Amino acid sequence: MSRNELGELRRSAAALLFGPGAVVDFRAGDAPISAVAAGLEEWDNHFPPAGMRNQQTILEARLQKKLGVQGFRLPPVAVKEFDHSVRKALVAVRFPNWLQCPHCSRLAESKWWSDESGHAGLFCAQCTQRMPGRRKVWVVPVRFVMACEGGHLDEFPWHSWVRHSDGCSKRQYLSLVSERAGLAGLMLSCPNCNARRSMDRVFSEDTWETFPNCRGRRPWLEGADEVCSHKSRAVQRGASNLYFPVVESALSIPPWSDQLQEALGVLWDQFMNVEDPAERAIFIRILARNELAPVLEELGLSVDSFTEQLNRRLSSHDDIDIDNLRAEEHRQFTTGIAESGNGREFEMRPQPIPASLGSWFSHIVRVVRLREVSALKGFTRIHPPGDSNASNVAPISTRRLDWLPAVEVRGEGIYLEIDADAISRWERQSVVVERVRVLDKQHQLEWLERFGEERPARTISPRLLLVHTLAHALMQQLTLDCGYSSTALKERLYVDHGDGAMAGLLIYTATTDDDGTLGGLQREGAPERIERTVAAAIQSQAWCSSDPLCIEGLLAGGNLSLAACHACVLAPETSCEEFNLFLDRALLVGTQLMPTLGFFSALIAEDC
């Protein structure tokens, strides 16, 4: 495709929801354009200097160690060259390559349509000739594409689907016409051999069993196609299951939340490579004469003070548990003291537990200031990622790089920890165990079908469902109490059954705009306010407009939830860590036949 400017994306979207491998819709004037975002190599090619030498970088030590990278790059901002009229911008590749004329319904590859110099859109010359003033009739991207569970993306096999007659040699154009409602009425035909076939059952998995295996195409990467053993299936070009970003995130917590590592930038890795403290001190004194001097001035430290702080920080780096970053965050929320200071990215204020909530919660913390770094390490198609290290996670670069794309958000939040004794007693009840066992068994079956492994990466427990559903209920209530939009809040779950058992949740601002700096969210963590918020959130889940179907789990279908629907606890997908799975409001409030099933059933009885 010729190099033309397509449009704009928010910076956070370019690194997460529409990262490399995602299909993005644009408009070039009046022409609709569909393209797949190119891999990370194009970031280096079009926005030098490459890698971590680039100025648009961020650091987060704990996340860097877990992902094995030197740092992260923000999505580059398009800039206009001084001597060129074209701006440097991220690269996308036209996909799908098949387009259709909305007037004559002809269907063909991009090479058979006409183009206009300096314009990304393609048009139908035949229909344009007939339009008043020869107004362009822009062709539109087809709605069907092929994808597989291995993350590959391919064109829909139009010629194979229509089943041309023997001897049909002219296969330039096809026709796709809607003759009646539904896919059965959408007819694909060849004007040359008169072959016809409807698009009925095009989305059925069984339909594609007789077709060859996936061709292993990766249009977002150059020269990276591979052999694939999966069967492709047809999906809508704009379907939500065409791209599930695999994101790892971490909060900047003490001692990693001050300005030291941020000020060091790429010098941090140079100091890490010097293991001996005596040699490191000599190295610091050498660098202090030139490139380290601005850093010392910014931090207001002498060489000796800087050396002491750096050595202390590097010793802490060795203690980072890369397998469970959230355990460190959990310890900070539950055992840490109030943190504050102008140079810090993290500030929290533990609050006394209101008497009315003492039976259910052990910690409530107002998080006045926080910083979260979210890095994109890959993506999946068809199914959400079951495990961030699973084999079906597709790459976003042709080779492993020492950096990953990431975004950082600064905001505020509220942390709540459920009382350990209370949740332990509740999750041992037979009615609770039996209800959750059904969901865990279904999760195991789906895992076995997708990955061929008998045991999934985790067990679906009552604790997970309770904490997750409570987080959704609180997010909904907080949007009403403090005026945030539903997409401005996000959950972060802390659930574990091991030696360091966790049952906590953080509700925080997750947007990069002004919503993260309003201050209204953390104030809701004050005792008199959180008492009212929790009671209202639980009470709102006692009844759903879709009951009794919802509370009996009849509306959740096979999506790994029980009592959950859009009328009660489902949240925007950008706010939920679990893609709106593993929810059951019956575990919050109980059912009419089993009121003790609800962890907060006594709280509802008190309000009544």
Give the key terms.
single chain; 608 residues; alpha+beta; 8-stranded mixed beta sheet; 6-stranded antiparallel beta sheet; 24 strands; 27% helix
Measured as a percent range, the helix fraction is: 25-40%
The termini sit apart by: 65 Å
Q: Beta-strand percentage?
A: 15-25%
- What is the count of helical runs? 18
Query: What is the radius of gyration?
Result: 28 Å
How can the largest sheet be summarized? Answer: 8 strands, mixed
Global geometry? globular
Average predicted local confidence, pLDDT? 87
Structural class: alpha+beta
Report the count of strand segments. Answer: 24
Low-confidence stretches: none
Protein described:
It is built from 18 helices and 24 strands. The protein has 608 residues and is of the alpha+beta class. The strands form six sheets. Strands 3, 4, 19, 20, 21, 22, 23 and 24 form an eight-stranded mixed sheet that branches. It has a six-stranded antiparallel sheet with strand order 12-8-9-15-16-17. A hairpin with a 7-residue loop joins strand 15 and strand 16. The chain is globular and about 80 Å long.
Please specify the SSE layout and strand pairing:
Layout lengths: L10 H5 L7 E6 L2 E7 L3 H6 L10 E2 L2 H7 L3 E3 L5 E2 L6 E2 L3 E3 L3 E3 L5 E4 L4 E2 L6 E2 L1 H6 L9 E2 L2 E4 L5 E3 L2 H5 L11 E5 L7 E4 L6 E3 L34 E4 L7 E8 L8 H5 L2 H6 L4 H11 L5 H7 L3 H15 L7 H11 L11 E5 L9 E20 L22 E16 L1 H8 L2 H22 L10 H21 L6 E8 L5 E8 L10 H4 L3 H14 L45 H4 L11 H7 L1
Parallel strand pairs: 4-22
Antiparallel strand pairs: 1-2, 2-7, 3-4, 5-6, 8-9, 8-12, 9-15, 10-11, 13-14, 13-18, 15-16, 16-17, 19-21, 20-21, 21-22, 22-24, 23-24
Helix pairs in contact: 8-10, 14-16
